[in-house]
Amino acid sequence: MLKRYTLHLSVVLSVFLASALCVAQGVPNPNGKTVAERLGYPANSRLLVIHADDFGMMHTVNHAIENAFQHHWVTSASIMVPCPWFPEVARWAKSHPEADLGLHLTLNADWTSYRWRPISGQEHSSLVDAHGYLPLLTEDVDGQATMPDVEAELRAQVDKALAAGIKPSHLDSHMGTLFSTQPLFQVYLGLGRQYHIPMLLSREPSDAMNPPLPAGFNLKSVPVDKVLQMTHNVGKANWLATYERMLAPLPPGTYELIVHLAYDDGEIQAATFDHPDWGAQWRQNDLNTVSSPAFRKFLRDQHFILVSWRDLGRSIPASAKW
Amino acid sequence: MSLLERQKRRLAGLFGSGAKAAPNPNRPSVAERLGYATDARLLVIHSDDFGMNRSVNRAIAEALEQGWINSSSMMVPCPGFAEAALWAKAHPEADLGIHLTMNAEWTAYRWGPVSKQPADSKLRDADGYLPKDKKYVRQAEPRDVEAEVRAQVERALGAGVKPSHLDSHMGALFSTQALFDVYLRVGSEYKVPMLLHKDPVVAKNARLPAGFNRDAVVIDQALQISEDVGKEQWRAAYEKMLAPLGPGTYELIVHLAYDDDEMRAASSGHAGWGAAWRQNDLDAMRSPEFQKFLKDQKFILVTWKELARAIPEIAQ
User: Fold this and answer.
1) Once rounded to an integer, what is the mean pLDDT over residues A176-196?
2) Domain for residue B13, yes or no?
3) How far is A105 from chain B (nearest CA, A)?
């Protein structure tokens, strides 16, 4: 098992080198078929999930994501169950069973003036701040949360989504909080295993999105090669070009582009007033980009194959399912 | 005058319709206690629901800053409470109470209780939110309601809000005697003035107990718009409501918000107190015509902070 992991690292390394050399050609996978091949695509294809985080966070976010699904600007999104606008998402999900929806497991209420509470009971939970809300920052969770409370909260989030009729196609983590320490990461891995839901994970130590996977972890259950996101300090005018520069040189493989959509309106301006990163303008820029004909053309010209997490879930062989 | 006669008169003064509010022969009226003329008409212009959502917060903050209203009460369990509390910190002069909230009445946008409720509590629906309907609050164990009421007061204090008064969202705490007793108990304990109804129709369900200090009942009548008023008649309806009032102390309860995407989505499926309703209220309160009407009618605008001075045990 350990051997397989080591072996895989060398694959990752060669993929990385190929990327560095801009060789956009399929690398034979000594480990078996690639995700693309398992899904019936040529070995040298580039699969891309265009994924909106934060469904349920605010009405403007919901409105933007619903619009993006209807126009196929995104192929997937993940839902924040503790947020006040979750019922709007649950209602939409019922009338859109084709939509690819995962759960954006949430341990933070990250805006100063707009907050939400854990859903698993609060008064003595290690998951609340002095005002009873989920903590503002990732570091607050790291510093104070006990793993039984984290697990209880996350299970409550999954159970509530299931009770609302949502069949989550995948799990991921709001603000990457569940990737920020090894104990939190273990809770996340345990949750996916218990509920049999594919998880967003990074294999690449160079990516460092999450701590190293435990020895023996079946890498066939990790369909995404690399996660791509907008970086800080990009001007509005360079938004589209930045995404294109990020995507164009990618070698064959499976990727997730994470975007944060909303209309830059009064609701989100107020919530993000002290936080330009992932703020109102940022999310409008993301929405403008994914909806732009220029970006749609870029994806076509680059022969990206757009896939959803349901597709990726089918690539995980039964033997690798937990 | 016999003792019985005196008591009857006193009760008439307490529970009688505000329009006829005769000066109480037994003790000075609220206006007199505050140093106003006996025939003065005091008015609190009060917006409920501060903290409910962004659209409401924006409208109420603006209305308080502009003086279109002079008092408001805050919904502690709501997601926008943090914003309202930040605004309160920056505006210590503002007259802000707590709008004790036992319901989450919308469909697409919901909030839960702030206290930990037992598994069988009627204050948590199947989705974990406060119930949509008041009937579940009426069915709830009074001790569960009391835990939630106390938790909301404590959360407000913890956020630096010093409440000028208490009232009840959707009147849920006025709907049974047991709930009303919780309201009275918590308000008395924290020494915070309470909106109390003298209206006999309300009093049928919830009576003030025999020994209750009647000086703490400072409002003669609370006035609200009714559901069948059309947009064009909105301001006229308020003027028709206010103009004939006799001397006394009144609270005009309004619900302010902008009729925007957020408010429309939150209140979709509810015409009453919905987005258009709240915009009508905002438009009426900020109109120069309504401001002029209040001046012409010589209403004296008072806040709950002022009314507290008419309640001896709180004023001390």
Assistant:
1) 96
2) no
3) 17
